[in-house]
Amino acid sequence: MTDAAHDTHRPAGDGSAGPPGEDPLPRRVPVFAVVGLALLMFSLDGTSVATALTTISGDLGADLAWTGWVVTVAAVGQILALPLGGWLSDRFGGRRMFLAGVAVFTVMSGLSALSPSIGVLIACRLVQGLAGGVMLPAANGIVAHQFGRDRDRALALFTSVFPIGAILGPLVGGLVLTTWTWHGIFLVNVPIGILLVAVGLALVDDPPHRRTARIDAVGIALLVVTLLATMLTITRLGSPGSGPGWTALAGVVALTAGAVFVRHARRRPDAVVPVHLLAGRGLGIMNVTNVVFGAVVIGFSATLPLYAQVRYDLPAFVAGALLTGRAIGTIVTSAAAVALLRRLGFRPLLLGGLVAVVAGLVVTAVAPLFGGPTVWLLAGSTLLGLGTGLSGPAANNAGMHLVPDEVAAVSGLRIMFRQMGGIAAVSVLTAAVTAAEDPGVAAGIAYGVLAVALAVVGLAAARIPNRRGRW
Q1: Rounded distance, CA 49 to CA 439, Å?
Q2: Which residue segment(s) compose the domain that 256 sits in?
Q3: I need a labelling partner for 246 at 20 to 30 A (CA). Which of 25, 98, 315, 450 fits?
Q4: Residue 244 is assigned to a structural domain of this protein
Q5: Is residue 12 part of a domain?
Q6: Is residue 16 in some structural domain?
Q7: pLDDT digits over 2-42, tens only?
Q8: 3-state DSSP call for residue 471?
Q9: What's the CA gap between 429 and 437, in Å, rounded?
């Protein structure tokens, strides 16, 4: 069957009024600004700390492999809280959970800045991630409610805020670290968070509630054990002097918990990861694509400053500033992608963007061919940013096109799979840098492996039927 037979094309601007009761609400723009700024703050925080990993490691007396948990454990918290956040929003209201998530995130930012040890900092970061995971489903529901029939474009623009913040984070972190201290990276969130809670109380309306389903506590617990045991295994492999017995035990626990988790998900109809959304109708390919895409987007943003420092000995601010090109490229092309989604469909934008991302990874991984390391890495970062801007909104909408009646569940899985990919990428890269005799070359090889993996999933994603028009 030809691709055209799969297209469900309805041109943008066709004059359709949409379903009754789905008119956009009057305060949608200021509400979008509030929830968008909250998402930007959360995203910036997730990667700005990456510029300070070596400084935190020396200041708190921890090796780099364990310090990498400061980045990855926040992602774990977010993954664990995503299903709980959706359930809480249904039970208590999206407005209340959004504001609660922002408030807790703000408090934990202040406590992170005051952490006296790496253990306390990791614990604070875990709670920060949990707060973000509660906030995100509520924020998506608020945006969808405010924009009605235009929710596809609004959500595409909204979800593009996250990668933009992830890109700008290292730049902000490098600036704060150069002019102040690593504690300031967390302190800057406090006044912003207080402002967001105050304005949100005045502006944000509560989306309609739905009947709440039971929360899959067993599934969430198994997911916790699987992710933490996997991270522990990778970290111990990258830590000099780690006993092989404990490392092997952590690996066995990770594999066992993962197997039990899959078995549990197959047997429980309301599992935290719905089995029917894992494969079929192109969902399996998109889930794998999201894992690898997350490894690239999150892993690259979190580790490029470290890579620039350990391979080319660039200063922290310069290393963070390398992602300026990626930020500009992503902003420009993501705006174009949002405008073209209904006309072209998601597949051309997704595939074109992935090609550019692979090229950017390859440029970053190899030694400079011209201009020195700063210019060369900036070129790779910019190229990767252009591709991320094109493919990000398209990938965000692909799963929702495939299963338009389960937007919330598909959105949660998309975020979860991307964060899982990011956790794996950051954990492996920091472990490789810690254990390798030549840390810079080891990280470059890891970027090359990511490029190959993304090219493979891109070829698989080319088989997904294209969809155009509204969903």
Answers
A1: 20
A2: 216-271
A3: 450
A4: yes
A5: no
A6: no
A7: 333 333 333 333 333 334 347 666 677 888 888 888 888 88
A8: coil
A9: 14
Last residue of a domain, one of 250, 271, 292: 271
Residue 172 and residue 63 in contact, taking contact as beta carbons nearer than 8 Å: no
Q: Are residues 326 and 398 in the same domain?
A: yes
Distance CA 377, CA 361 (A): 10
Q: HSE on the CB side for 157, CA within 13 Å? A: 19
Residue pair 402/276 in contact (Cβ under 8 Å)? The answer is: no
pLDDT tens digits, residue range 44-67? 887 788 778 778 888 888 777 677
Query: How much is the pTM?
Result: 0.68
Are residues 356 and 238 part of one domain?
Answer: no
Cα separation of 293 and 418, whole Å? Answer: 7
Residue numbers in the chain where pLDDT is lower than 70: 1-21, 23-26, 65, 83, 86-87, 148-153, 155-157, 159-160, 163, 166-167, 208-213, 235-243, 279-282, 399-409, 411-412, 466-471
**Beta carbons within 10 angstroms of residue 371's beta carbon:** 11
Among the listed residues 143, 161, 261, 251, the one whose alpha carbon sits nearest the alpha carbon of residue 205: 143
Closest CA to 145 of 96, 207, 99, 90: 207
Contact 76, 122 (CB under 8 A): no
Q: What pLDDT does residue 355 have?
A: 92
Q: 169 with 186: CB under 8 angstroms?
A: no
